[in-house]
């Protein structure tokens, strides 16, 4: 999973991104992740892993990871090529979801590009750039489809849908706010529009606003109201505090969070929101060597899950031995879980659940 961080200059993006890379997962463990200074890889926190590793006596624990991509430089006029804008916009096309950092903290020492705090205006400024970029892309697509539709009448529906999206964008609406049938949604997803990507608004607040989750901050309230209309998520963070948390060891971190009256860090909240927004779940594998979590899309079947580990596992999939994490944990061992009849043998059509502990049988 790759999330792109966007927002106006001076809202706290780099501070948050630096916290992410500080907290960063050991990149050697994640060879699939791109080595790029603008990409930070973080582990997805999962308390189940330590329990499983205990049961199996695993040598190491490998949490699943997500990537955050710092997309700085998105400013007013970006879609018109200002400030290398188009280059940044193309980076956003590569991410699965967007984290849009919005400044909700007052601080006379930190200049605001527009001279004052105004989360809704800021959101609109960035969203307009995304809209302009999509309109430009759609125009080219519509021209092509119009030509092709002259000899191929079956393209009329496609053309009508493209024009519907174009009209919505011209009304300053995000493509994701459109109501679409399943087929339409699939088609639109393939267009890779920036304004169709799921968004988490990260409301960057002052430390004092953290404990009550921004409940008394009117800027946060405005962001929440806007997000609700758009069908987007809001996570309240304090980038500066995140930067401090990222430097702490796990135990210190827990104590520090408790002092602040928090149960988890902003980064962990962002990761959870991203999982929820993208409909992701984790399944687990365990053995004496390692205990590991893997990310899949909710609704994936057993062979697809096996394919996350290795493509050969998907091709040669025969069956999977599955036990729910809770069942295994309360039984204390795989043998005990088997005795109680809690371990199932599942085939190709099995839909994997979050927290399934799986062992695959496959042909090579
Ligand atoms: P970017 O341009 O969006 O990447 O913003 P930066 O992360 O560079 O932050 C701009 C300035 O705001 C820096 O001086 C940060 O120290 C400051 N800043 C970032 N987050 C916070 C915050 O949560 N509270 C306060 N008071 N200042 C912050």
UniProtKB/TrEMBL annotation:
It comes from Peptoclostridium acidaminophilum DSM 3953. The gene is engD. PROSITE patterns: G_OBG, TGS. Belongs to the TRAFAC class OBG-HflX-like GTPase superfamily. OBG GTPase family. YchF/OLA1 subfamily. This is Ribosome-binding ATPase YchF. It comes from the Bacteria. GO terms for cellular component: cytoplasm. ATP binds at residues 10-15. The keyword Oxidoreductase does not apply. Residues 1-257 form the OBG-type G domain.
């Amino acid at each position: 999973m790759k999330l792109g961080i966007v927002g106006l200059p001076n809202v706290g993006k780099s501070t948050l991104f630096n916290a992410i890379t500080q907290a960063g997962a050991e990149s050697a463990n994640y060879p699939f992740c791109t080595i790029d200074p603008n990409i930070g890889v973080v582990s997805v926190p999962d308390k189940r892993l330590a329990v499983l590793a205990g049961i199996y006596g695993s040598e190491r624990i490998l949490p699943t990871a997500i990537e955050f991509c710092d997309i700085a430089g998105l400013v007013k006029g970006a879609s018109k090529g200002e400030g290398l804008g188009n280059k940044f916009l193309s980076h956003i096309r590569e991410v699965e979801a967007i984290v849009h950092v919005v400044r909700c903290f007052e601080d006379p020492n930190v200049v605001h590009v527009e001279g004052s705090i105004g989360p809704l205006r800021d959101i609109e400024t960035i969203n307009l750039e995304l809209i302009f970029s999509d309109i430009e892309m759609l125009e080219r697509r519509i021209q092509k489809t119009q030509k092709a539709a002259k000899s191929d009448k079956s393209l009329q529906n496609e053309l009508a849908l493209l024009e519907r999206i174009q009209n919505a964008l011209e009304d300053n609406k995000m493509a994701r706010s459109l109501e679409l049938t399943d087929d339409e949604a699939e088609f639109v997803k393939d267009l890779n529009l920036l304004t169709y990507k799921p968004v988490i608004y990260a409301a960057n607040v002052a430390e004092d606003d953290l404990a009550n989750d921004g409940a008394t901050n009117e800027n946060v309230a405005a962001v929440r109201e806007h997000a609700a209309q758009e069908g987007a998520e809001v996570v309240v963070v304090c980038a500066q505090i995140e930067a401090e948390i990222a430097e702490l060891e796990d135990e210190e971190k827990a104590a520090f969070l408790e002092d602040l009256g928090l149960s988890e860090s902003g980064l962990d909240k962002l990761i959870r929101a991203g999982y929820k927004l993208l409909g992701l779940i984790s399944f687990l594998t365990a053995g004496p060597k390692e205990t590991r979590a893997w990310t899949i899309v909710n609704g994936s079947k057993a062979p697809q899950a096996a394919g996350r580990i290795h493509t050969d596992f998907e091709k040669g999939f025969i069956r999977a031995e599955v036990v729910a994490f809770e069942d295994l944990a309360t039984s204390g061992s795989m043998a005990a879980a088997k005795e109680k009849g809690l371990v199932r043998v599942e085939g190709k059509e099995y839909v994997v659940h979050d927290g399934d502990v799986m062992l695959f049988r496959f042909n090579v």
